[in-house]
Write a structure and sequence with these properties.
This protein has 292 residues and is an alpha+beta fold. It contains nine helices and four strands; from the N terminus they run H-E-H-E-H-H-E-H-E-H-H-H-H. The protein has a four-stranded antiparallel sheet with strand order 2-3-1-4.
Length: 292
């Protein structure tokens, strides 16, 4: 009978440990997903910003050599990601494909002008920066006009700011939720051992001696839960990478490693602090209050 009771106790104890590890690992996994979103949020916003371009309308009598010289100068600028030169003939071919008919036969001449499409780096796509660049570029002799869609540019920048604020608020709320869930899970785990703590005090064990095994076990469980969360994140990242390979760059992989270290630190530190206060709650408490 004693062996059976001992087996049941060990089973319940093991189940509580498994529940604690699984709960903490799932919370850390959610934090890890949020971290991955934050890591890639900048790259995604940069992608949308850098996909916009402004068009330099060149003068019809501009020489090919002068146009190529302008393009090389623009490519050398620190704020330019890349440029694309579109000649009159190339512009006519594109327009013919879009219209589905040959407008040159109708007009009898090519009214299109040669252009250079300029794609800026993300840090220079703010409206104020584009206005300054527009003034600089219009000073070139071969440039007739600079055209860009100001409304779309403002819309993207406004949405990026709104999304950044939204992600920051969600991050804070999720982190506070994670702290609460992990703390409550550990408190329930310690609560189930309150009589053991009280018994150790009754036989003369001091506070640090009682806390030590709980803290060491909690730190180990936090580390183990973080490893499980990292494993789940790596699996999720592998699935995403199969569909969106360009989503992860070398820089992002380094940031992912930092995220893994942050999850380990969070699992260990939060578990340790929660356990410390949870054990202290039952140290020195009157025996009658252990039943509440």
């Amino acid at each position: 009978m004693a062996k059976s009771t001992g087996g049941i106790s060990r089973y319940r104890l093991g189940s509580s440990y498994v529940t604690l590890i699984v709960s903490v690992s799932l919370v850390l996994f959610l934090l890890g997903i949020l971290g991955m979103v934050l890591i890639n949020a900048r790259q995604l916003s940069d992608y949308f910003r850098e996909s916009l371009s402004f068009t330099i309308m060149l003068k019809e009598d501009a020489r090919e050599a002068d146009i190529r010289m302008l393009q090389k100068e623009l490519d050398a600028k620190q704020y330019v990601k890349r440029t694309e030169y579109v000649s009159k003939d190339e512009a006519a071919v594109k327009l013919r494909e879009d219209l589905g008919e040959d407008f040159l036969d109708f007009l009898g001449y090519n009214p299109l002008m040669p252009t250079i499409d300029v794609y800026l780096l993300a840090d220079y796509t703010h409206p104020d920066s584009v206005i300054k660049l527009e003034k600089i570029i219009t000073e070139y002799p071969v440039v007739d006009e600079v055209y860009y869609q100001e409304s779309i540019l403002n819309l993207i920048n406004d949405n990026v700011r709104k999304i950044s604020v939204f992600l920051l608020i969600i991050s804070l709320l999720l982190f506070l939720t994670a702290l609460t869930i992990i703390n409550n899970t550990i408190r329930l785990s310690i609560y189930s051992k309150r009589f053991l703590i009280n018994t150790m005090q009754l036989i003369g064990a001091n506070r640090s001696f009682i806390r030590k095994p709980f803290l060491l076990r909690s730190l180990f469980f936090g580390f183990l839960a973080a490893l499980i969360a990292i494993g789940l994140l790596m699996g999720l990242m592998y699935l995403i990478e199969k569909e969106f390979f360009t989503l992860f760059t070398y820089e992002n992989i380094n940031l992912f490693l930092l995220l893994c270290l942050a999850l380990v630190a969070a699992g260990v530190i939060i578990n340790g602090i929660s356990t410390f206060f949870a054990v202290n709650r039952y140290l020195g408490i009157h025996e009658d209050k252990l039943y509440y």
